Known about the structure:
The protein has 203 residues and is an alpha/beta fold. It is built from five helices and seven strands. The chain has helices spanning 28-32, 64-87, 102-113, 160-172, 191-200; strands at 4-8, 16-21, 43-48, 95-100, 120-124, 146-152, 176-182. A seven-stranded mixed sheet has the order 1-3-2-4-5-6-7. The termini are far apart. Keywords: Hydrolase. Pfam families: Abhydrolase_2. GO terms for molecular function: hydrolase activity.
Amino acid sequence: MPEIKKKGLSLEKAKKAVIMIHGRGATADSILSLSSYVNLTDCAILAPQANGSTWYPFGFMASDKGNFESLESSLNQIREVFEEIIQAGIPSEQIFLVGFSQGACLSLEFAARDAQKLGGIVALTGGLIGEKLQAEKYQGSFDGTPVFIGSSNRDFHVPAFRIQESADLLQKMGAHVTVQLFDDPDHTIRPEEIEWVNKNIFL
């Protein structure tokens, strides 16, 4: 079982759950600190910790072969957390994914591999993972799941074109996708992004 930091209500008491996924070089505790700014007061919050604080060794658009083993292991780690929530009686449409940077990429990749109706996905600077987008890797329908992707329009790590490609593919899979690209060079989480998701996803 992966190391998981928890916050908020217990799974037994909560009717909603959030999986928060940290970025490269960060920790579960660091992404949990974001929960203080998001409307998650009635949720169980679970944050898995990546081995060595990295979900996969290379960039999210690097060679598929180089990232394959670690990426599959990390996707399984998120799947274990997701199944723990389902086993506690919380349905998928009340489960949310929140990730930053590498964690945002992993959030989108995990959700799209087996798409289903979720409470929502918040990808703070991220896109689908792979050297090239391969639509055949993904299956299922999001059935109207709201997806937010926010980023810089010139982020060094996550190109805007891959964000838009990812958004288009997710939209075709039935997600209701909102992309906000900010005219700054920062690799960060912006107050405007938090304000938007609080008004539109974490109601």
